[in-house]
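Re: How this chain folds, sequence and tokenised backbone to follow
How to read it: Take the token row as a discrete description of the fold.
Start of record: The labelled sequence and token lines come straight after this line.
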Amino acid sequence: MRPLRTKSPDDWRCFSVVDGKIAPPSICEINIVDHCNLRCTDCDHAAPAVAPRIAKSDIVLRDLLLLSKSYKAESLKIIGGEPLLHPDLPSIVHAVRESGICNHVVLVTNGTLLHHMDGDIWDALDEVELSVYPETRKLLDMNMSTILQNTEKYKVRLSRYLYEYFRVAFSLVGTSDMSLTRRIYKTCLRARIWGCQSIYEGYFFKCPQCIYIPQILKQSIAYDYKKDGIRITGDFNFQDTLKNYLMSPEPLNACRYCLGGIGRIRANTMTKTSEWTSIHYVPTEQLVDYDKLRSLENSETMYDMSKVRVQYEDAGRRCH
């Protein structure tokens, strides 16, 4: 468990300005595929339910070059879905490097395909963040020696996290209670503290959840996901537009269907694709961890209890 000290509930500055550019607290993300080879019940990117998508490297480069004029992150995470399903991952990594959007490039993966990853990809990365689940742990243990050999060979940092349970991320029924929606948004760790800012198909978003929620709602209530983001442009006033967007106290459309960081905890399991949507068809009010919500509202120290760092020792080198 890692301790988390929340800021004031009224502090919306999930960024700073460094050398004239907006900088997130630590990282931003680019979602290069939406689909995954796993079916986690509480996947907060809704990978089991969304349509497959593959990002194009020329579009990625275009977006990051435009954004880099007014924005720079210390680290950028290449994420999915499962990013190793991308058929041309080297071109994506090189587009990130060429853009200059960050100093540190991280690949986030469930690791089930990592032992097959090509050397040119390893060579272009600074770090691999490995998400381990109960159902994949044995497979990863079998292939860990190969993975560690590659981290040594290519001087890549390995971060390994075990997720034995998740917080419920979505309600596909949502809530009509705007006061609850505002409470969830105001205590949202992703939007307000962690700064899980995402770049996706020409748009910038406060969090990846607002990208995926509209794609999994019933057609009668679905809406264009772009409404919750801002288009990335080279306009002279884009930086001000981005600041105003990040600091806005108004909930997004997706917040009616999102649990932010206060969904109930449940064990991490895998679910059939055909059953995934129905599991989340529960009203928001029944999925809220009200103790967590009140604690965040009171700015108490909380713990991110679903993400547990584990370590390996290999040839005297510690891999985190």
